[in-house]
Specification:
ten-stranded antiparallel sheet; alpha+beta; 15 strands; about 35% helix; three-stranded mixed sheet
């Protein structure tokens, strides 16, 4: 018997996924996948957990010529191997809802643990991310430098371009990804599973994010491949979700270019068991909507423009949010560069986030405007040029809530900035030089002991500015007066 195959099978049986009687069956399935040769690979045996053993089996398959060396081929085989411990969709859904009858969190814990154990959630990759908090006048902001997604091999990029195009699955969020083997230009999903849900009369699914940005980072996706939209149905579905899973928050990206997320072609939401910074923002002031007196409405002290609605009554929150959205979609105040439409092009929408707190429904509406101008071709309410050396991508749901997802280039670039501040030899990027000089001027004492903290604090302040740029009503006297003018259009008492 191939020693590595035998070790993996023994671990499957030891952890209770199979019984001793399944040993030959499992061994033969694995031998088909990785090859029957058993060369001495000098593989590390420091860990014998399933994911490490799986990685070793993938390396064995490369050595035996069963797969090539492209990352995509390795991930496809790895997903097939871990599919051995993943229940089929019908069994998984049956178990999930059986657990749910006892307690929603028990069901979520079961599915989350499975998604980690079968390597669908890439814990090893996610652990590479750099994370640090920064204190601002708005409270804590969280910074993540995203290092989890592996770099593409130029050869695989070329191979993907040469491969015949396919429209199956239509996108990365389609339900057809469940169990899909993958190809050079589409990720492997053999070990991927989806919990089926009904949200406001529509068929939806729940899955976890393979490259999680926070605790239990999950995705709710429509069964239909339909574009993102934010309507009263959105609010109804978000509150349905927190009714089902009251320990989670859930939110939607805006549906418009510039202010929307990275995938606008498939309607979906994101959530998880995490109190992201905006949740704990201080309230600036409250107001009462005449037709929704049972809904508490508040403005948050936050760099973006946020209206929070709170009530015991679900339908009242949905109706109040729909009222505000309708007003915002048609609101113009040119004195602060806010315009609802240009010709027939819509500019206004919201980024909504829902949660349950102390038994009440809480819905945040972040006002968004996707206009461009000659001065701001990337977007009037988008990170401006002077902060784009840190963050130039769209400000989506997660960033709106105070968690920066910064590009991997910054890991090496920030190290060069640190060297520059210490007057060491370095190759600082030209677009960081002015920022670095400002840091020097603002800090009398910079040493090897404090330089990293100084740079990270400055990155946090830049991210704060990113969010302020994206805010439609600025945190200035003029901007807040304009915000009150909008609030007064909502029929308040």
């Amino acid at each position: 018997m191939n020693k590595l195959v035998e070790q993996f099978v023994e671990r499957l049986i030891c952890e209770g996924y199979y019984s001793e009687i399944d040993k030959l069956y499992l061994s033969n399935r694995l031998l088909h996948l990785v090859g029957e040769n058993d060369p001495d690979l000098n593989l590390s045996n420091e860990k014998d957990d399933l994911i490490t053993l799986k990685d070793n089996l993938v390396d064995l398959a490369v050595t035996n010529g069963k797969i090539g060396e492209f990352l995509e081929e390795k991930e496809s085989l790895g997903a097939q191997i871990m599919d051995l411990i993943t229940p089929i969709p019908s069994e998984l859904n049956k178990k999930f809802w059986k657990y749910y009858e006892n307690n929603p969190d028990t069901a979520l814990n079961y599915f989350y643990k499975l998604s980690k154990n079968n390597d669908y959630i890439k814990l090893k990759a996610v652990s590479k991310n750099i994370y640090f908090p920064v204190v601002t006048e708005y409270g804590r902001l969280d910074i993540t430098i995203n290092l989890s997604k592996p770099e593409k091999d130029p050869r695989s990029i070329l191979a993907a371009k040469q491969q015949t195009s396919s429209e199956y699955p239509k996108c990365l969020l389609c339900m057809e990804n469940e169990g899909y083997y993958g190809r050079i230009n589409h990720p492997a999903r053999s070990n991927h599973r989806i919990i089926r849900l009904n949200l406001a009369g529509e068929k939806w699914g729940l899955q976890y994010s393979p490259y999680a940005y926070f605790n239990e980072h999950c995705i709710f996706l429509s069964e239909e491949h339909v574009p993102m939209s934010v309507t009263s149905k959105t609010f109804e579905q978000l509150l349905d979700i927190i009714d089902l899973f009251p320990s989670y928050f859930v939110g939607s990206n805006a549906e418009l270019p510039i202010v929307g997320g990275s995938i606008l072609s498939h309607n979906h939401y994101q959530g998880g068991k995490e109190a992201l910074p905006m949740e704990n923002a201080i309230i600036d002031y409250d107001f009462i909507l005449k037709n929704f007196s049972n809904v508490q409405a508040s403005i948050l002290n936050w760099p973006m423009s946020v209206i929070r609605l709170t009530s015991n009554e679900k339908e009242s929150v949905i109706d109040a949010a729909s009222h505000i959205l309708q007003k915002w979609e048609n609101y113009t105040d040119e004195s602060v560069s806010i315009v609802a439409r240009t010709d027939n092009e819509k500019h206004h929408t919201v980024t909504p986030i829902a949660r349950k707190r102390n038994g009440k429904f809480e819905l945040d509406l972040v006002l968004r405007d996707n206009q461009t101008s000659e001065e701001y071709p990337d977007g009037i309410f988008h990170p401006h040029k002077d902060v784009q050396h840190i963050k130039k991508e769209n400000i989506g749901l997660i960033e709106v809530m105070g968690l920066a997802i910064l590009p991997p280039r910054l890991k090496a670039e920030l190290e060069q900035v640190e060297s520059y501040l210490l007057n060491d030899d370095c190759h600082i990027a030209e677009y960081h030089k002015q920022w670095a000089e400002t840091i020097k001027a603002d800090n009398e004492v910079i040493t090897s002991n404090n330089v990293r903290q100084i740079v990270r604090d400055s990155v946090g302040q830049k991210f704060k500015r990113v969010l302020e740029d994206a805010g439609v009503f600025k945190r200035t006297v003029e901007g807040q007066e304009a915000f009150r003018r909008f609030i007064n259009t909502l029929d308040i008492e």
